[in-house]
Write a structure and sequence with these properties.
Dna Ligase, domain 1, 65 residues
């Protein structure tokens, strides 16, 4: 899944989830930035978007053969 970043009304991306996670320690994502998945039009605070992404990855049941 890829994500777009919104800052001050401008959009950037798309970025992978790993790229977004790397932005944190580099201070490249701020408290007022938003993310949205490429398949969605809903912008979320970036912390909330990452929490949802982590929950989705954590719940990945095995697929039937």
């Amino acid at each position: 899944m890829r994500y777009f970043l919104q800052r001050d009304g401008a959009s950037y991306g798309p970025y992978t989830l790993d790229e977004i996670r790397q932005f944190q320690p580099q201070n490249r994502i701020g408290p007022n930035d938003f993310l949205r998945r490429e398949d969605s039009q809903q912008w979320l605070p970036w912390q909330q978007a990452l929490a949802q992404a982590a929950a989705t990855v954590a719940y990945n049941p095995p697929q039937p053969a």
